[in-house]
Design goal:
single chain; alpha/beta; Rossmann fold; Dihydrodipicolinate Reductase, domain 2; Alpha-Beta Plaits; 3 domains; 6-stranded parallel β-sheet; 6-stranded mixed β-sheet; 14 helices; 36% helix; globular; binds L-homoserine
């Protein structure tokens, strides 16, 4: 089947990331989508040094893409309200599907854009507009569809969270960290959107509409920024057992819906209080499921591209596959499943905690170390406790670096054969998950 043709408008941080991910993962993406996704044209005025566009046709005029009869899906990544709105409405008018990462556009003009899309029978997908790479829109819209959503609360601006984290952990100044966030491509073109909470309010507006089934109403969101926060308050909050986070909160009450973004003290032991740097997290509370938490990179080149490409796959599936089986049961098309083998546990790799009960004799530790080193196992830390009074045995506790399990099996067998080792060696696998 012929590939779906995509036109990317804007080759900045997200546009460049989208091009790179589509190119790098082309084969796997086609196996999921049911056909290839090909970038047929890019509109940009500036090349992106992090993106080798090769022979892909480039134009300086975004409307060339929208009017290109070859293109099925327009990816709007230019940002802003005015030109982006004109671009998206024209694309819809021309019968093209649209994928966008533009939260400002959706929050402010989404009602009008969706009405036009319904009229024209095209899809407008916007997963990348909220929380970067976290598929939170899909989670709320599809995964939690059986719930009455009570409330949601999220750290939904990566730049702001990066600034607060660096201020708290390293005592850096607000201005210094903001500059770094801009250099890293996290911040908006106008960074006051990040620090004044406008960007978070755009995203919260979208989440609230999806959660509660209300039209988009950005103009009613309460917004308070982080620019006036000082290290003094960050430290006092810490002393009281809290962290300050810039939180977006949407809550359903009998009187109406709360829609607010502001700095917030959160007990330091809550998971969401430990979401640091550019990471985002959204808690969603539904009446059936209770509280759920979605976490991941909230900004940046490839995390945001991940969500854009997921939307492209969704639209491609809708254009391609049997409507009753639009999303394949196993995510990949049935005829594209691979026979990549599942490894036996002995071939899996992990780090290990080992506890060895040994007799309190000289040289035991050396024997343990030599058994491990002969099998190429690197010890990360080792601890020998005092002999327990009743039995005179000493627990030797160690943590290894990552190694294939078979080597640990061999080592344990050798350790258990030592005269000075009694009992079975206790083995617990260690995962840093970093
Ligand atoms: N400026 C935004 C942020 C980019 O920092 O979260 C992702 O929407």
């Amino acid at each position: 089947m012929k590939p779906v043709k995509v036109g990317i408008c804007g080759l900045g941080t997200v546009g460049g990331g989208t091009f790179n991910v589509l190119k790098r993962n082309a084969e796997e993406i086609a196996r999921r989508a049911g056909r290839g996704i090909e970038v047929a044209q890019i509109a940009t005025r500036h090349p992106n040094a992090k993106c080798d566009t090769g022979a892909t046709p480039i134009t300086a005029d975004i409307f060339d893409v929208v009017n290109n009869p070859e293109i099925d899906i327009v990816v709007e990544l230019i940002g802003g309200y005015t030109l982006a709105k004109e671009l998206v409405l024209k694309a819809i008018e021309n019968g093209k599907h649209v994928v966008t990462a533009n939260k400002a556009l959706i929050a402010v003009h989404g009602n009008e854009i969706f009405a036009k899309a319904r009229e024209k029978g095209v899809i407008v997908a916007f997963e990348a507009s909220v929380a970067g790479g976290i598929p939170v829109i899909k989670a709320i819209r599809e995964g939690l569809a059986g719930n009455r959503i009570n409330w949601l609360a999220g750290i939904i601006n990566g730049t702001g969270n990066f600034i607060l984290t660096e201020m708290r952990e390293k005592g850096r100044t607000f201005e210094e960290v903001l500059k770094e966030a801009q250099e890293l491509g996290y911040a908006e073109a106008d960074p006051t959107f990040d620090v004044e909470g406008i960007d978070a309010a755009h995203k919260l507006t979208i989440l609230a509409s999806i959660a509660f089934g209300i039209p988009l109403q950005f103009d009613k969101a309460y917004t308070e920024g982080i620019a006036r926060l000082t290290t003094t308050d960050v430290n006092y909050a810490e002393a009281l057992g809290y962290r300050i986070k810039h939180l977006g909160v949407a809550r359903r009450t009998d009187a109406g819906i709360e829609l607010r973004v502001h700095p917030t003290l959160i007990p330091a032991d809550r998971l969401i209080a430990n979401v640091n740097g550019v990471m985002n997290a959204v808690m969603v509370n539904g009446d059936a499921v209770g509280s759920t938490l979605y976490y991941g990179a909230g900004a940046g080149m490839e995390p945001t591209a991940s969500a854009v490409v997921a939307d492209l796959v969704d639209v491609t599936r809708a254009l391609t596959t049997d409507p009753n089986n639009r999303v394949p049961h196993l995510a990949f098309q049935p005829d594209s499943l691979s026979d990549h083998p599942i490894l036996p546990i002995s071939a899996c790799e992990s780090a290990y905690y080992l506890r060895i009960q040994a007799k309190d004799h000289p040289g035991v530790l050396a024997q343990v170390a030599s058994i491990l080193s002969e099998r190429g196992i690197n010890i990360e830390s080792i601890m020998q406790k005092e002999a327990e009074e009743q039995d005179g045995l000493v627990p030797v506790i160690l943590v290894t670096h990552r190694v294939v399990e078979q080597r640990i099996d061999d080592s344990i067998a050798a350790l258990e054969k030592l005269d000075d080792v009694v009992d079975k060696v206790v083995r617990i696998r260690v995962e840093q998950l970093n």
